[in-house]
């Protein structure tokens, strides 16, 4: 294990659905990867509304931390988007009450902006030391930046699973889900001045977790592996269109892997903004590499490093070592 002072401090902002049937369980694999990585010190986890309503994500994260016997602070964000008008369109994200819950449903304590104030206080106390890893919509980060404008002076980097650079979206033809769920929040973050590493669908779609690999976790009789099997099964069934022999994409785990081992990916600098006024393109991440005609004329100042290529073999090794291998090795 590396010396403690070599560890990278991170806060994970996430919408984990492992524990809510039918939600995307993959955030929890990313959190497991972080918890099993000596390179990282997770100083906090904040939950945001996205894959599942925010209190369900909070409950699922609490269950996972309990399984890991972890004392990491856990805070919840609000059950609405950053922008009030947008909330009217996205209100259904907070209302999916018919989803079956496997983990005990907990009510987050304290104020609804807990996540934002936690992020600010932690980052200010450890100025320049804590990176943010966002694997859900960017609501909490935007609220924190809005409430505490000096947050930008304390955060050295944000690594986000967000957007699509040169490929189509996954929730609409132009938008990736995390950005689409709260486009105004995403644009606040992109224009914040904080250095950004963006892990878009372009590289996420190069990752695979085979159906066999997913199902094989359930071969281990350990109760946690059985829980994962029960949590993941409905997602496999919902996404059968995506689970050909190619398997599931590991969006959030790839973002986490990029924090552990940045050289897994090849990046290109870009000026990124989010479409918030589009009729058909709301939530699109417009990536200007200063290669278009207007890009060459305007020479926009780059605000993000956008990942475009992935060393798939090395990523798979890391994922199997920290996640599937770990789960297979658990003893009842």
Structure, described:
α2 links the parallel β2 (40-47) and β3. With 332 residues, this protein is of the alpha/beta class. A nine-stranded mixed sheet has the order 3-2-1-4-5-6-9-7-8, sandwiched between helices. The chain is 38% helix and 16% strand. The two termini are 25 Å apart. α1 packs parallel to α11.
Concise structural overview:
Helices cover 38% and strands 16% of the residues. It is α/β, with parallel strands linked by helices and 332 residues long.
Which features does this protein show?
alpha/beta; nine-stranded mixed sheet; 16% strand; 332 residues
- Number of distinct helices: 13
Question: Which structural category fits the helices and strands?
Answer: alpha/beta
Uncertain parts: none
Q: Numbering strands along the chain, what is their spatial order in the largest sheet?
A: 3-2-1-4-5-6-9-7-8
Arithmetic mean pLDDT: 92
Q: Provide the helix percentage.
A: 25-40%
CA-to-CA gap between the ends? 25 Å
Please provide the count of β strands: 9
SSE diagram, text form:
Blueprint (H helix, E strand, L loop, with lengths): L7 E7 L11 H10 L4 E8 L6 H14 L6 E3 L7 H7 L23 H12 L4 E5 L4 H9 L10 E4 L15 H5 L1 H8 L5 E4 L1 H4 L6 H6 L6 H16 L12 H10 L4 E10 L10 E4 L4 H6 L5 E7 L1 H18 L3
Parallel strand pairs: 1-2, 1-4, 2-3, 4-5, 5-6, 6-9
Antiparallel strand pairs: 7-8, 7-9
């Amino acid at each position: 294990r590396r010396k403690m002072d070599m560890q990278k401090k991170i806060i994970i902002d996430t919408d984990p659905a492992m524990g809510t049937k039918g939600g995307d369980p993959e955030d929890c694999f990313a959190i497991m990867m972080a918890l099993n990585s000596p390179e990282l010190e997770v100083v906090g986890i904040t939950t945001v509304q996205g894959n599942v309503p925010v209190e369900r994500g909070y409950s699922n994260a609490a269950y996972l931390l309990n399984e890991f016997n972890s004392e990491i602070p856990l805070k919840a964000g609000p059950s609405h988007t950053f922008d009030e008008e947008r909330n009217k369109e996205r209100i259904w994200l907070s209302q999916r009450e018919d989803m079956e819950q496997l983990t005990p449903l907990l009510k987050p304590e304290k104020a609804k902006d807990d996540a934002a104030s936690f992020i600010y206080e932690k980052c200010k106390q450890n100025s320049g030391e804590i990176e943010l890893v966002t694997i859900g919509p960017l609501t909490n980060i935007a609220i924190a930046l809005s409430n505490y404008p000096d947050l930008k002076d304390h955060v050295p980097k944000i690594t986000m699973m967000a957007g699509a650079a040169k490929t189509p979206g996954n929730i609409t033809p132009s938008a990736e889900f995390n950005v689409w769920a709260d486009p105004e929040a995403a644009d606040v973050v992109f224009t914040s001045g904080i250095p950004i590493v963006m892990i878009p669908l372009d590289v996420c779609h190069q990752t695979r977790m085979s159906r066999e690999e997913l199902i094989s976790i359930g071969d281990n009789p350990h109760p946690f592996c059985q829980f994962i099997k029960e949590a993941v099964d409905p997602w496999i069934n919902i996404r059968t269109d995506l689970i050909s022999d190619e398997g599931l994409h590991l969006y959030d785990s790839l973002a986490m892997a990029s924090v552990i081992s940045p050289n897994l990916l090849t990046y290109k600098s870009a000026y990124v903004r989010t479409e918030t006024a589009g009729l058909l393109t709301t939530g699109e991440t417009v990536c200007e590499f200063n290669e278009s005609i207007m890009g060459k004329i305007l020479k926009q100042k780059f605000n993000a490093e956008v990942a475009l290529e992935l060393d798939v073999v090395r990523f798979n090794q890391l994922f199997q070592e920290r996640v599937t291998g770990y789960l297979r090795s658990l003893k009842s």
